[in-house]
């Protein structure tokens, strides 16, 4: 699967577009198909980035729906997916102090670090307004 649109959005720091791009790509993909390398769709899908994309635009309902659709085996094998959802859970309950703890409490991959840092700055700014 070609993830160039996601990579391009990440490179240009267009984090607000990531959820829509991921949603569109997911609709185009056949989750039951197997790629040419023999890797199942679920194994190569960037669930962490997809979740963080929804979280970045404050679409917690879509993040929650995505979380529920992620296969349990992926959640077990990819701890970063769970760490991203932990941020979503804290936002769901509006516990902003715990949001920052969830962000700081995980060693993010370089790919996720960029959007997590941007979101952290955004949420910190929002919290300062209240």
UniProtKB/TrEMBL annotation:
<dbReference type="GO" id="GO:0010387">
    <property type="term" value="P:COP9 signalosome assembly"/>
</dbReference>
<feature type="domain" description="CSN8/PSMD8/EIF3K">
    <location>
        <begin position="44"/>
        <end position="122"/>
    </location>
</feature>
<dbReference type="InterPro" id="IPR033464">
    <property type="entry name" value="CSN8_PSD8_EIF3K"/>
</dbReference>
<keyword id="KW-0736">Signalosome</keyword>
<keyword id="KW-0963">Cytoplasm</keyword>
<keyword id="KW-0539">Nucleus</keyword>
<dbReference type="GO" id="GO:0000338">
    <property type="term" value="P:protein deneddylation"/>
</dbReference>
<dbReference type="InterPro" id="IPR033205">
    <property type="entry name" value="COP9_CSN8"/>
</dbReference>
<dbReference type="GO" id="GO:0008180">
    <property type="term" value="C:COP9 signalosome"/>
</dbReference>
<dbReference type="Pfam" id="PF10075">
    <property type="entry name" value="CSN8_PSD8_EIF3K"/>
</dbReference>
<protein>
    <submittedName>
        <fullName>COP9 signalosome complex subunit 8</fullName>
    </submittedName>
</protein>
<dbReference type="GO" id="GO:0005737">
    <property type="term" value="C:cytoplasm"/>
</dbReference>
